């Protein structure tokens, strides 16, 4: 196996474990966790928001460490943090312990992405970097898809599930130590604090915040919504997660679609799909077929849009790919940190129906932001896809 292919496979697996297991599986198992630890919707939202907050803090630190140490060190650290956080979730005896473990597990996702962007810049030919980055990013869908069957098999045994996820994270730490380059490459030469916010970066921040906030409707509350609307238990929620994750793997095509149709067109089309998916899963009167179809739409749209933001940020800061990725993904997480507790509070104070409609509308508003890429940058995207 070539070093570039090994790097792509390792990055795909690392993102699958950190995002699919450590960050998003909490929403899948939330009904069972709630039954064991007696969590209210508002408290569930706050704990879920804590995972996103941990991500916010970690991704900023990760970009800085990647530029000063090496992609390998930070990638291994990400896998180990995921392992410790998920082991803590498996052992959690109370809500405060769970909140701390969820926050730590969520931090692993922030640590994982920047070193992979830097590693791709250092080890992959320029014409293949865009495609490789979006393939690695699609690992989120694979992780979500794998967590679904685990939920089906484990039923109410969510603690055992997270113990197994922690073991998988240890395996990926070993793989990262073997396959991720130890040299941070060009990032070390250009490291130096926060970059100037040019037009494309400002617009990216607006779009990513709004999309991130809206996504918590399903990432944090998808399991509760199908339990409420369809009286589904762990089996039904697992099927929803499989639908979301399987469709999300198509997000590996984001780089090619951006090269062919442009950032703005791809961005808006999949924001509409994402809003539709949220409504189909969470609306009053939904059916099993509509809910699963909504999960497919949501999964496809979310991973596709994050792939768009990845290309958008990396191209806007081509000499600092870890930082370019960090800005877009950090802003998604800030939106998720704000969105999860707000959605939970809306469910309690108004109704799930109002919360779903408002957050679907929030996804659509992200389309007002334009990439506004310069011709040179657009040409670079086409070459990289």
UniProtKB/TrEMBL annotation:
Recorded hits in SUPFAM superfamilies, A to Z, give: MFS general substrate transporter (SSF103473)
Spell out the subcellular localization from the entry.
Cell membrane
Pfam families assigned: MFS_1
Does the UniProt entry include the keyword Membrane?
A: yes
Principal localisation: membrane
Regions crossing the membrane = 44-66, 73-92, 98-123, 135-154, 160-180, 201-219, 239-259, 266-283, 289-312, 324-346, 352-369
One of the record's GO molecular function terms? transmembrane transporter activity
Q: Which UniProt keywords apply?
A: Cell membrane, Membrane, Transmembrane, Transmembrane helix
What range(s) does the Major facilitator superfamily (MFS) profile domain occupy? 1-378
According to Swiss-Prot or TrEMBL, what is its membrane topology? Answer: Multi-pass membrane protein
Q: Which GO terms describe its cellular component?
A: plasma membrane
Please indicate if the UniProt record lists Cell membrane as a keyword.
yes
Question: This protein is called what?
Answer: Putative MFS family arabinose efflux permease
- Organism lineage: Bacteria, Pseudomonadati, Pseudomonadota, Gammaproteobacteria, Oceanospirillales
């Amino acid at each position: 196996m070539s070093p570039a292919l090994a790097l792509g496979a390792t990055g795909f697996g690392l993102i699958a474990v950190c995002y699919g297991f450590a960050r998003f599986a909490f929403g899948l198992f939330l009904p069972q966790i709630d039954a064991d630890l007696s969590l209210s919707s508002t408290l569930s939202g706050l704990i879920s928001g804590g995972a996103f907050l941990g991500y916010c803090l970690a991704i900023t630190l990760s970009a800085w460490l990647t530029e000063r140490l090496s992609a390998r060190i930070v990638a291994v650290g990400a896998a180990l943090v995921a392992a410790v956080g998920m082991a803590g979730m498996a052992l959690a005896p109370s809500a405060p312990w769970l909140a701390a473990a969820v926050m730590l597990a969520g931090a692993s996702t922030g640590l994982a992405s920047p070193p992979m962007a830097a590693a791709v810049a250092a080890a992959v030919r320029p014409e293949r970097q865009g495609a490789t980055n979006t393939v690695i990013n699609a690992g989120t869908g694979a992780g979500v898809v794998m967590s679904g069957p685990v939920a089906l098999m484990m039923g109410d045994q969510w603690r055992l599930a997270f113990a197994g996820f922690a073991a998988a994270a240890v395996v990926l730490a070993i793989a990262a130590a073997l396959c991720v380059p130890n040299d941070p490459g060009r990032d070390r030469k250009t490291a130096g604090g926060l970059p100037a916010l040019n037009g494309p970066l400002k617009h990216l921040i607006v779009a990513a915040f709004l999309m991130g906030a809206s996504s918590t409707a399903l990432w944090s509350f998808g399991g509760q919504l199908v339990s409420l609307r369809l009286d589904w238990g762990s089996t039904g929620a697992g099927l929803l997660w499989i639908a979301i994750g399987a469709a999300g793997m198509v997000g590996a095509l984001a780089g090619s679609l951006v090269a062919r149709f442009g950032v703005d067109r791809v961005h808006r089309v999949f924001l509409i799909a994402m809003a539709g998916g949220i409504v189909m899963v969470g609306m009053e009167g939904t059916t099993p077929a509509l809910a699963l179809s909504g999960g497919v739409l949501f999964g496809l749209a979310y991973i596709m849009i994050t792939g768009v933001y990845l290309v958008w940020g990396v191209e806007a800061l081509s000499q600092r790919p870890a930082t370019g990725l960090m800005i877009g993904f950090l802003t998604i997480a800030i939106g998720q940190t704000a969105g999860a507790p707000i959605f939970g509070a809306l469910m309690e104070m108004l109704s799930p129906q109002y919360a779903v409609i408002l957050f679907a509308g929030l996804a659509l508003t992200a389309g007002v932001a334009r990439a506004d890429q310069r011709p040179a940058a657009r040409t670079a995207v086409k070459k990289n896809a």
